[in-house]
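Report of the visiting student (M.T.), summer placement. My assignment was to run the structure pipeline on a short list of targets and document each run. The first record concerns Amine oxidase.
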Amino acid sequence: MEGKNFLRCLFFICSVVLIMLFTAFNFPTPLSDKSELLECATNSAWCTAKNRILRHPNRAPLGHDHTADVPHHPLDPLTIQEMNKVQKVIKSFFGKSVYSVHSLVLEDPEKQVVLKWQKGDPLPPRKASVIARAGGKNYLLTVDLESGEVVEHDTSHISGFPLVTLEDMQNVIFAPLSNAHFNRTILERGVDLNDVACLPFSPGWFGKAEDGRRLVKLECFTMKDTANFYMRPIEGIIVITDLDTSEVVEIIDKGKHIPIPKAAGTDYRLSAENGPVIKLPNPISMEQPNGPNFVVEDEHLVKWANWEFHLRPDPRAGVMISRARVRDPETGELRNVMYQGFSSELFVPYMDPERYFKTYMDAGEYGFGLQALSLDPLNDCPRNAKFMDAIFAASDGTPYVRSNMVCIFERYAGDAAWRHTESPITGKLILEARPKVSLVVRMVASLANYDYIVDWEFHADGLIHVKVSLTGIVIVKGTSYVNMNQVKENEDIYGTLLGDNIIGVVHDHYINFYLDMDIDGLDNSFVNVHLQREYTHGTSPRKSYMKVNKTVAKTEKEAQIKLKLYDPSEFHVINPNKKTKVGNPVGYKVVPAGTAASLLDPEDPPQKRSAFTNNQIWVTRYNKSEQWSGGLFAYQSHGEDTIQVWSDRDRPIENKDIVLWYTLGFHHVPCQEDFPIMPTVSSGFDLKPVNFFERNPVLRIAPYVENELPVCKAAASA
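After the run finished, the structure tokens were exported:
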């Protein structure tokens, strides 16, 4: 009888935790009622069976039915029909072996094929790239969608594992509750098992002893009396578990003397606040009653003002911008700027030696796109936004729809594209100003506690602004301290005391971007435009001035750039084969911001795995297989398949097809304003034309005139 009661209790706990994990890790699920929830809790395969197209729960209106979608462009993502075909091929390939699909995406055609293709031409052969696991082995497969032919690529030389699937995490969260030692120590701490939630975190890699098994480290919290369970850690318990078998390998059980932080004041929901609600009496909204100025043709080709680009969601990168071209106002020609751009990898190391493994590579370990939210209209995106769905594959290859994963909208905040006033010299008033309107492509990834908002913003003057905003919940650890006067002199608590028994741990965020710049063609060069002090040597009343020295990088090592405040440079990607009328090579420059640099030792295992943070800027020779700066298999990788390794090959890059990489960085020393949820912090970088146009490309933009603007009424929004 006691055994039955225990199982009943365990079953209830699993169901509750499952609901919580669906929210925390964005599990794909069609669940609509309790019976389905319980079925999924006991049989994870049921969730993705019968070729059902799963819809992620979201508050936004669902996108349209995608079952009849067909590709129109060589870079269009795989359709549901294509994924179903690939799923059958994979099943046949593995036969009776148990397998899991970790990535199922379009295998891009060769770049030259895409560049030659024009609308109306037949599509090049469609192929799928599949990363799977079976029998303890990683598989990288190419599936020909027409013939069904499968080509297996050798990956035996690459360490690590593919990103964990949502089903992997879904299965492993119950492992601690099946362990008697774990349940006993939870009860000894006075915590009800019904209130426990354990979340799976990647373990990093710290030596060969960790090889051979896909491991995960679960940390546990109490959900009692708050939605913000992250602020109620059960300190000192780490459950090391095998992802493939759900076997508990080891339980680290320390910190029983550390109290669990109280729930009071931790809930971030408006309904939990007791004070007055802060609300503007007159809400602000950008309205476009006549519709937007952009169009999305054939589901993925975005056209706005003088820009045209291909947009597709991706389970690892989040979104991919491809074939970005801008129309020259003088010639009317669509000119190539960037062949492809996306978030390649993230690195989030926590600076607590006691929790040394907290060094997350979120894109390669979890999937930036897999963790993307269905966006919340009016709050994630303005009312004038349009939405795009994503179609991803579950671990058995079944396609499911992530509704409203991406939003596209025009932004106008009253800024000027350019302006000038003239009066005293000319004797008459000249007042010229132009509105700055831009187009934003946005996605939000919710990686457990943290939310990342990524914007690609296109401006009519040819500039591309890439912005990353951080918000969400700071990772904390429990402590016996309730006031800083209890902390011993020179004691390092590895963070900031945010409240009673809560320390917000110091950490960094790095986001590396892959930017395949093709300025007016494939063959480009990287130029270091070095700014240095020069002396006049008595030829002027001035003693010194700033001189520009330009150096073209010959090889990859010459383009490994660490930014220096007092030794500044501009960094240009130019086409040396095309010049303006006055003889300058056309180009773009990267304008850095968010320049935090890693302070970890270069030989520290996390730093070797995330070696893209060794420099802020890299330039490599284009190689179709080199897209993920932390390696193809980032999970428990050793660091032998990174951008550092590729760049150290020192290939020629002058007047070649090259890729620019930029690493955006944030240092985060938590403060009390980050409790219980942190206000958004943002930074970004620009890709800016430099001698690309013959003159100011927005010179002919018309100013706003009062009688041409729409008049919006509040009633119209009802």
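The first strand starts at residue 54 and ends at 55. Confidence is low (pLDDT under 50) at residues 1-23, 27-62. I thank the supervising group for their guidance throughout the placement.
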